[in-house]
Amino acid sequence: MALATREIRRVNRLLLRWYEKSARSLKIRERNDPYSVLVVEVMAQQTQISRVETLAERFLARFPTLADLARAETAEVLEAWRGLGYNRRALALHRAAATAHARGGLPAEVEALEELPGIGPYTARAVAAIAFGGRSIPVDVNIARVVSRILGAGGELKPRALQQAADTFGEPLGEGEAAAWAQAAMDLAATH
After folding, report:
1. How far apart are CA 124 and CA 138, in angstroms?
2. Number of C-beta neighbours around residue 11 at 10 A
3. What is the sign, positive or negative, of the torsion defined by CA atoms of 74, 76, 78, 84?
4. Distance from C-alpha of 70 to C-alpha of 22, rounded to nearest angstrom
5. DSSP reduced 3-state for 115
6. Distance (Å, rounded) from C-alpha 36 to C-alpha 20?
7. More confident residue, 100 or 55
8. Under 8 Å CB-to-CB from 65, ≥6 apart: which residues?
9. Whole-number Cα distances in Å, 34 to 55, 79, 83, 100, 103
10. What is the DSSP letter of 27?
11. Which helix (H) or strand (E) holds 3?
């Protein structure tokens, strides 16, 4: 089930080449500053990406910086979140912004991001990869499906094993490529 380093590099090269030609055009992918990435990733949980694109613009116009969100009143945050549902995500994002702002900004490391209120493994890895060039691949349902198929594992891998397998693809990548790899795997799973 494990792939040799040479095979991993080949898969990475093919997937990234496919992504260059076939990437879905999403405005939210143009953002790479840590705060905007965090907002978009929290919004994208349990929400269609097409809705996130519109609502993220509105939210970020109201709270353009981490400090703006950290200082906001809860009622303001919930009003700006309107249309996304699952208000607990807005409340967690608000707490995470306040905590990160108090600590001097969003950290670059996965482990430090996971210490923020409401930030789990996927969101921490996505922010680290997209905003900071981290090499850990964030695993969502689509990425899990792609990794499992590449490894021929079907549905056999548990979450920890899936994350470890995904990270083996991230290790040989250059800075910023883990984000592209993850987005490529999402697009591949969404379109095929």
Report:
1. 8
2. 17
3. negative
4. 37
5. coil
6. 23
7. 100
8. 35
9. 18, 23, 23, 11, 15
10. G
11. none
Report H helices in 23-65.
34-43, 49-62
Between CA 131 and CA 28, with CA 69 as vertex, the angle to 5 degrees is 40
Buried b or exposed e, range 38-66, using 16+ CB within 10 angstroms: bbbbbbbbebebeebbebbeebbeebeeb
Amino acid at 47: T
Does residue 96 contact residue 70 with C-beta atoms inside 8 Å?
A: no
Whole-number Å distance between alpha carbons of 40 and 60: 9
What's the whole-number mean pLDDT along residues 95-106?
A: 97
Q: Do 123 and 105 touch, CB atoms closer than 8 A?
A: no
Report pTM: 0.88
Model confidence pLDDT, tens digit, residues 119-154: 999 999 999 999 999 999 999 888 888 888 888 876
What does the pLDDT look like over 49-98, one tens digit per residue? 777 888 999 999 999 999 999 999 999 999 999 888 888 999 999 999 99
Catalytic residues: 41
Which tokens belong to 130?
A: 């997209």
